[in-house]
Amino acid sequence: MKIKVLLVDDHTVVLKGLAFFLSTQEDFELVGEANNGKEALVKVGETNPDVVLMDLYMPEMDGIEATACIKKEYPNVKVIVLTSFSDQAHVLPALKAGASGYILKDVEPDQLVEAIRSAYKGNIQLHPEIANALLSQTLPEEEKEEEPSVQVDVLTARENEVLQLLAKGMSNKEIASVLVITEKTVKAHVSSILSKLHLSDRTQAALYAVKNGIV
Questions:
Q1: Could you tell me if 176 and 202 lie in one domain?
Q2: Does residue 32 have a pLDDT over 60?
Q3: Torsion angle, alpha carbons of 160, 149, 68, 134, to 10
Q4: If you write DSSP's letter for every residue of 38-85 in order, what string do you get?
Q5: Edge-to-edge strands of the sheet including 78-83?
Q6: What pLDDT, on a 0 to 100 scale, did the predictor assign at position 148?
Q7: CB-based burial of residue 58 (10 Å sphere; 0-12 exposed, 13-18 middle, 19+ buried)?
């Protein structure tokens, strides 16, 4: 039985390149392509893939939201994030959304093939760089001991919104666009969040949000 694969990426060159390469694998069947998260949801319902290769930044619906929706509606479908972003602000939200793997686009073709086969069998697949980063990145011990609800309560409603978007990997400029505020205002909110939660940088803030179920 062949592994049915759906490709999701908003770059045509990437889609066509992946499609061509995967078509050379005898145990793979390419069942469809999608250019954004919303289209991916429709395609999953239509084609019933075993594995979805998902980009992160796409119009209409990003890869993290699409992954969460797919796993909610089609829990047996495996999603592998295939992206260029290796920081925890992208990795953890993707894994929390239900991704079975997180692979960087500089991966060797043979490694990508093995990642798809392994995810299909139910294994978690992480690019070596991602695995090492996750193992080395931890929150300060004092933060782990504090009650999340108490910490979150000190944030304003707007700061909570900023923190949620930050944890999804958005830049200050992207957050400003979503919330219809200035980039300068976003920077001020981020500084306030870090101060109130006793965190040192954006990565720790994103980790805190993900680990404590804020996103």
A1: yes
A2: yes
A3: 100
A4: HHHHHHHHHH--SEEEE-SS-SSS-HHHHHHHHHHH-TTSEEEEEES-
A5: 28-34, 3-8, 51-54, 78-83, 101-104, 125-126
A6: 45
A7: buried
Same domain? For 22 and 122 the reply is: yes
Q: Which residues contact 210 (CB under 8 A, 6 or more apart)?
A: 92, 93, 96, 167
What is the three-class DSSP state of 86? coil
Number of residues assigned to the chain? 215
Q: Which residues contact residue 122 at a Cβ distance below 8 angstroms, ignoring those fewer than 6 apart?
A: 78, 100
Q: Is the pLDDT of residue 192 over 70?
A: yes
- For residue 71, pLDDT beyond 80: yes
3-state secondary structure of 214: coil
Range of the domain at 174: 141-211
* CATH number of the domain residue 154 falls in: 1.10.10.10
Please tell me the distance from the alpha carbon of residue 153 to that of residue 22, in angstroms, as a whole number.
48
Find, among 14, 21, 75, 74, the residue nearest to 44 by Cα: 74
111 and 190 share a domain? no
Structure tokens at 32: 């469809």
Helix (H) or strand (E) holding 174: helix 172-179
| Closest CA relative to residue 33, chosen from 57, 52, 61, 58 | 52
